[in-house]
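Bumping with the actual sequence this time:
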Amino acid sequence: MATCAEITQGILHEIYPSLYGSFYDEKKLDQRFIHLIEAHEKDFGVHDVQLFSTAGRSELGGNHTDHNLGKVLAASINLDTIAAVHKTSEKKVIIKSEGFPIVDVNIDDLTRRKEEENTTDALIKGIAKAFCDKGIALGGFVANTTTNVLKGSGLSSSAAIEVLCGTIFNHLYHEDRLSPIELAIIGKYAENEYYGKPSGLMDQIACANGGIVSIDFKDTNHPEVTAIPFDFASHGYALVIVDTKGDHENLTPAYAAIPEEMRSVASLCGETNLRSVDSEQFYTNLPKLRKELGNDRALLRAFHFFHENIRVTQMVEALQKDDFPTYLHLVNESGRSSFCYLQNLYDTPTEQGLSLGLAMTEEILKGKGASRVHGGGFAGTIQAYVPLELLPDYTQKMSTVFGPDAVTGLFIRPSATRCFCE
């Protein structure tokens, strides 16, 4: 358990490196947790709390491949959602998230309701239902949360809150027996079945697991997760995202069309997903597929899938061999494939913030580093690997177009989702 006085005395200082890497302001982090505990005491009258943290994530490779049981490369990052929590005897979950109304959910009633889709209530119900389906008896908790995982940035703020809630249930009522991967699967279930969003599983695993991981989704119920130790800064590069301030409203159909179109190609090849389709079979049958499908974009998205799957394997091998130049080349190839074949850079031709961000990055870096669309696409962020000596100039020039807070530096977080202060 933790109090404000104990935070001031430095009880978290040995924990910070596992959550935030090597670059952080100790005093600012202390104040962040003190503010959270003070808010919990003000809202709920409890000042001795348990503290939890779940990371946001950055997709490094494998853009929109997980939906069709492909391969991805992703990482937990230093931006996180944190919670001050106390256990209760009521069968209710109460969550106060900074800047949002209080969520109050009765977990004795886990009925799925259409009108609750796209709400935190739905996510909590879905998570609780998944625990109950495993025969795990749950009780209630009260939590205050705050996050610096940028909403709509492709850093998976929604997956972070899903995994965080699962982590709290797992710790309070199941002695932390479920693994990060199991918590990720629970989060995906809640998002798909209760929240109503057709997400894959990459976001949840990367938020839950810690570090850089390659994930093979061929067996979706038992994804193969491999840790890839690597430090970008030691090679003289900063990993950043640039928020191009695009509008995510009404983009769910655009996101949903990607896996649907890929599966439509798979279906004509006699399979349910592209991972089960032999790429040579696809190329051989292309004339027939084009005639029967009548959708060239679906075929291009299949091209992206097959090559991106191979590319992830090559990216992993490059990192394992400490071959950073090859890795950067593959990052650029991934970005090109997303732009040309996956076609998830924009939804409206006159609003192309992501395309503009990538064009500016190429102009500023002049062949150094790499860049690609980050996450779902259509709006939001790009990802760039910027030589450290160019970072001030890059940040200044991108900020003139996209705003003073557009560029965010990322560091790889080694720690899994966890309760870190009993």
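The tokens above came from a reply further down the thread. The CA atoms of residues 69 and 275 lie 6 Å apart.
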